[in-house]
Each structure stands twice: as structure tokens, then as C-alpha cells.
Specification:
Helix content: under 10%
Shape: elongated
Distance between the termini: 41 Å
Radius of gyration: 14 Å
Order of helices and strands: EEEEEEEEEEE
Strand content: over 45%
Largest sheet: 7 strands, mixed
Length: 118
């Protein structure tokens, strides 16, 4: 079992920055990929960024503005968000995916609200 807990959301003005954190616990040695997703009201959950073995992947809408990073010693993934726009407003979710050897399971956090507004 793996647990993930997000933190760092809040209210920020357009053009501002926030850093989200996602701390994993439990059987963290089984984790391969970790990622950030977001869901705005009325929309489906969408990919923001993922990281695995140092390789990163970003949604086109956040490329050049968001950076995902991982501290393996702390079992924590970060999402640095710069130049925030009102359309970035959403609940941001972190997930952790285990390798196929360990069942290929996906674990989700409870989400953290990010609101970009004047």
C-alpha cells in the first residue's frame, strides 16, 4: 500500500507562483511514476505533469511555466507553478503508480485547491 498527501495549494494572483508538494508513504519502494493532475469544476481530470526515472512529461498548457521534480530521499514530488493564469484554477491531485511487478496500481491523494484570481 502507498499513501500520498498533497499540500501547498491556495489563492494566488495571476502571474504569481505556488509550489505544491506530494509526500508518499508506505511501500514507496514499489513506486515508479508519480504525477500531478487537475480537475476544474465541470471538467474531467487532466494530466499536468509526470516524472519517472528522471524523465518528465508535461501538458502543453503548462509547458514552460510548471516544473515537476522529485526528491527520492524524502519520497516527495513537487510541482513548481509560475506565471499562473486564472485557467489554472482547479483541484490538483497527486498520484503514485507502482511498477507492474508490484501490481501496477495507482494511488491518489485527496487533492489541494489552487485558485488563481485577483
Amino acid at each position: 500500500q502507498v499513501q500520498v498527501v498533497e499540500s501547498g495549494g491556495g489563492l494566488v494572483q495571476p502571474g504569481g507562483s505556488l509550489r505544491l508538494s506530494c509526500a508518499a508513504s508506505g511501500s514507496t519502494f514499489t513506486i515508479n511514476t508519480m504525477g500531478w493532475y487537475r480537475q476544474a469544476p465541470g471538467n474531467q481530470r487532466e494530466l499536468v505533469a509526470t516524472i519517472a526515472s528522471g524523465r518528465t512529461n508535461y501538458a502543453d498548457s503548462v509547458k514552460g511555466r510548471f516544473t515537476i521534480s522529485r526528491d527520492n530521499a524524502k519520497d516527495t514530488v513537487y510541482l513548481q507553478m509560475n506565471s499562473l493564469k486564472p485557467e489554472d484554477t482547479a483541484v490538483y491531485y497527486c498520484n503514485a503508480n507502482t511498477t507492474p511487478f508490484y501490481g501496477g496500481r495507482t494511488y491518489w491523494g485527496q487533492g489541494t485547491q489552487v485558485t488563481v484570481s485577483l
